[in-house]
TrEMBL record:
Biased composition (Basic and acidic residues): 7-20
Signal peptide extent: none
Record-given protein name: N-acylneuraminate cytidylyltransferase
Ranges for region Disordered: 1-24
Pfam name, any one: CTP_transf_3
Domain of life per record: Eukaryota
Organism field: Xiphophorus maculatus
Record InterPro entries: CMP-NeuNAc_synthase, Cytidylyl_trans, Nucleotide-diphossugar_trans
GO MF annotations, alphabetized: N-acylneuraminate cytidylyltransferase activity
PANTHER family linked: HAD SUPERFAMILY MEMBERS CMAS AND KDSC, N-ACYLNEURAMINATE CYTIDYLYLTRANSFERASE
Amino acid sequence: MIAQKRGPSDKNATEEAESPKKRRTRHVVALILARGGSKGIPLKNIKLLAGVPLMGWVLRAAIDSGEFDR
């Protein structure tokens, strides 16, 4: 039996198998956890700080960072 040389057709087959991986895009989601119960400052996440709830500052910082898709 004669060994066959790998030609361009073998390379294309490999590229076709890998192409779905190349098409995938990564999505980054922010998950911000906020507890409602606090012994020191009850409901601190909705207390106003400079006219904006504390959670609003956190959300704005995440949005302005530009690192997250959702």
